[in-house]
Each structure stands twice: as C-alpha cells, then as structure tokens.
C-alpha cells in the first residue's frame, strides 16, 4: 500500500514592501511522503517571495498555485498562470538537472529555482556552465541555516506572516521568525 501525502494548511499574510503587494493567501500543501518539512517550507517561502507577480504579471487575474510536487517531476513546484492558461512563472525547489530547467524555460516566461542544503554549491558549480544561456532563468540560493530554521516553523495548521523587504524574506508564526537572506547566483 502506497503512503499518502500529508496535508498541511497555511494562512499566509504577505506584505511585499518592495512591490507594494499586500494579500492573505489560504493555502493547502500536500507533502509527499518523501518530502521533508524543510523542502515544503521552502516551497511556501517561494510562494511568499513571488506572490506579488499575481499583480505585476497578471494584473490580479491569474492563478498562483503549488504543482503536484515530487509525485510529478515534470511539473513545477509552484506556478503562476494567467487567465489564458499561459505559464508566466515556473518555480523549482532544490537542485534540478539542466535539461529539466531548459524544458521549463521553454514552457514558461520566467523560471526561478531555489537551491538549498549543503550540496547546493557543488550542484551549482556542476550546472552553471550549462544553464548560463537560459535568459529567463533565475537562481536564488537559500542558505542552509535559513532552510533548517524554516523547517522548524512547519505545523499541520499554520498562521504565518511573510514580509519581503529589500529582496529578503522574514517569515514568522507570531512566536518565532526566520530571516531568509537570498543569494542570487544567476
């Protein structure tokens, strides 16, 4: 018998000061049995970091949602589609292969990947030369300490506040907060 995904609920109040975007997002996250809390929370952080694109790219008329995740490796972890179903944003979490990133860049206007963990630097050194030509790809490194601290915020039911200012994310639950200082690699 196959293991089922664990369902998490999150209400995230996003205050993106950099882009003038302020909204509440009621989210359901299905955590695949092989997915860690760390990876799931980075997916949630990626949503908070990119939520403003609902307004800036789609004028509020789009869908920002989580993909099928680890159970469908050819789908994004997070996507933004406009009302015509055009994929405006494709977000990956972790360390994707260069061919998968090239396919994603062909399917979406913008592709953003958030590598994390102690092996991220090794992954980037190995892949950088093969993805430099992908003009619509951005790579933002999440420090290992921040990724681990995000995992500590994971609960089956979450009330979170996300503040984006000067390109940095502050994610908290009222009792604890995690500052995520992103490093742009591409």
Structural commentary:
- By secondary structure, this protein is of the alpha/beta class.
- The chain has a single domain (6-184), classed as Restriction endonuclease-like alpha-beta roll domain (Restriction endonuclease-like alpha-beta roll fold), CATH 3.10.640.
- It has 5 helices and 11 strands, in the order ββααβββαβαβαββββ.
- It has helices at 37-50, 53-56, 98-107, 120-131, 144-151, and strands spanning 6-16, 21-31, 62-66, 78-82, 87-93, 110-114, 137-141, 157-165, 168-172, 177-180, 183-184.
- A hairpin with a 4-residue loop joins strand 4 (78-82) and strand 5 (87-93).
- Helix 1 (37-50) packs across helix 5.
- The model has no long low-confidence stretch (mean pLDDT 92).
Radius of gyration, taken over Cα atoms and rounded to an integer in Å: 16 Å
- Structural class call reads alpha/beta
User: Helix content range of the residues, please?
Assistant: 25-40%
From the spread of the alpha carbons, the general shape counts as: globular
Estimated share of beta-strand residues: 35-45%
Weakly predicted, low-confidence segments? none
CATH class: Alpha Beta
Order of helices and strands: EEHHEEEHEHEHEEEE
Number of helices: 5
Biggest beta sheet attributes: 6 strands, mixed
Q: What number of structural domains do the residues give?
A: 1
CATH topology: Restriction endonuclease-like alpha-beta roll fold
Mean pLDDT rating:
92
CATH architecture: Roll
Strand order of the largest sheet: 3-4-5-6-7-11
Number of strands: 11
């Amino acid at each position: 018998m196959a293991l089922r995904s664990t369902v998490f609920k999150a209400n995230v109040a996003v205050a993106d000061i950099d882009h003038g975007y302020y909204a509440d997002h009621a989210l359901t996250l299905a955590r695949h049995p092989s997915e860690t809390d760390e990876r799931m929370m980075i997916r949630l952080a990626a949503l908070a970091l990119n939520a403003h694109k609902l307004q800036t790219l789609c004028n509020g008329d789009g869908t920002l949602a989580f993909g099928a995740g680890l159970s469908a490796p050819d789908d994004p972890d997070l996507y933004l589609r406009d009302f015509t179903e055009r994929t405006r944003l494709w977000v990956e979490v972790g360390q994707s292969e260069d061919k998968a990133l090239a396919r994603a860049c062909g399917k979406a206007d913008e592709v953003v990947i958030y590598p994390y963990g102690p092996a991220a630097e090794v992954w980037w050194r190995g892949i950088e030369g093969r993805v430099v030509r992908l003009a619509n790809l951005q790579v933002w490194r999440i420090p290992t300490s921040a990724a681990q601290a995000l995992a500590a915020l994971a609960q089956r039911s979450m009330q979170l506040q996300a503040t984006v200012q000067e390109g940095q994310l502050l994610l908290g639950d009222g009792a604890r907060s995690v500052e995520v200082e992103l490093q742009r690699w591409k």
